[in-house]
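user:
I keep going back and forth on a fold encoding question. Separate attempts, laid side by side, tell us more than any discussion would. Would you put together a sequence-and-structure record for a protein of your own picking? Write it directly below this note and I will take it from there.

assistant:
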Amino acid sequence: MGRSPAFRFEGGREGVLLVHGLGRTPDEMRLLGKGLNRAGFTVVGVQLAGHGGDEDELLASGWEDWYASVEAAADDLRGQVDRVFVAGSSMGALLALRLAAMQPTWVAGVGVYGATFRYDGWSAGWATRIAFLLPLFKRLGIGRDRRLLQWPPQGPRDERLRESFGRGMPSGPAGPIDRDGDSWHALAETVKLARDVRRRLPAVLAPCFIAHALDDEVASPGNADLVARHVRGPVEMLLLADSYHRITIDRERRTLIERSADFFDRIAREARIARTAA
């Protein structure tokens, strides 16, 4: 699989950093990024360490490396705009939340799209029962070439979108949708990341826009509820009834774009008003 470079769309003085999911590329966030840019935001899609190359490169990286990519991109962006918002998909949502917890003065708001703390969607099968063991397996060197498979269909709920994104583009905007599942050792890193971020959720003070598919095949809406219950910032929730896990490219992506742009814009306007009043 060829590399997919990070993208940047120049806009106004409000910036949005977009974070892709495990084994994916910034392209799964590109449609969202274009929509936010049309709404006036400067948008950057970060390329996570270890992603965009072959599987050996992915397995040589860990969640700390992925988070370091996000923090470095956010630090760069905040020097160029007045405010930074961060939004992530799936595992990327966890990285976005961690940035808000670790660097609260950097993050004005968080987009939490299909957050995956637990692999408990309807296609996960027995994956949810062994996920907690994966870090141990990795430490013992067990299962490097093993994968957790999902029941089909994979990718967007819309069959035409699934075919277009899976076949009509070199690897689709979300990476190869018809891949053979996720490596145990890569998933082990997401389990460790989820444990770390879950402990840090009360440190998230920024407003959170939480979007999740009701019929998410990877991570049940209980993952969204988990975030809403434990963060300390204001929460706005969007539950999507006609999408699967990849909500940034699925049937309701326009709704996601509009609601995200409105959420970030309201925060930015309130901040400007508060600054003027002061």
